[in-house]
Amino acid sequence: MMAVVASTVLAGCLTACEPGADPGPAGSPAAPASPSAGGATAGDKPAGKAPATVPDFVGMGLQSAQDTAQEAGFHVLTSHDALGRDRMQVLDRNWKVCGQSVAAGRSVPTDTPLDFGAVKLEESCPAKERPSPDTASGRMPDFKGGSVKAARAALDSGTSLTVKDVSGQDRWVLVESNWQVCAQDPAAGTEIKGRPVELRAVKYGESCP
């Protein structure tokens, strides 16, 4: 009987007395394992996209520019009408690039958005892009020379807007991106305050009266 007790005590001692073992107070939870030297920690951030050099897209067809951008690793791509007419670039092959949002030759992460200013193939690039009209100040922008579509987009959707053909032909203004504003009421700089707006317009290529 004494031999059995001694054997049990000896086995318990061997288990509890292993080098480095720290049983701690009775009933205490085990300490969490520390992360390995190469493991990720809670403060680690995912690595950003690798940088790449932005190509020169100016003069390219819009479709070719998009293909070239994707080959270089850029996939966040948009385009806009460089003439300020607010036209959609539906058939990219019918448009050419006049400007780009990130200068050629810059090295930027490949998840950087790239935006192309474009015109139709038969059109000339503007020396300077016409900015989109802005009503954030609460006052009427100067819509003259811009498209009816861009003017409508700048106004609140609840604005009462009337558009008249002032060429003398009394035509319906259907495709508003094809019409340029000749005059407006209220005048530029006037507080809008929910006022009705009237635009007098002709088609692009025609002269305002």
TrEMBL record:
Residues annotated as domain PASTA: 134-203
Signal sequence bounds: none
Family matches, as Gene3D superfamilies: 3.30.10.20
Skewed-composition ranges (Low complexity): 22-43
CDD domains: PASTA_pknB (cd06577)
Domain of life: Bacteria
InterPro entries to which the protein is assigned, alphabetical: PASTA_dom
Region of interest: Disordered: 22-52
Name the UniProt record assigns to this protein: PASTA domain-containing protein
Organism this protein belongs to: Streptomyces tagetis
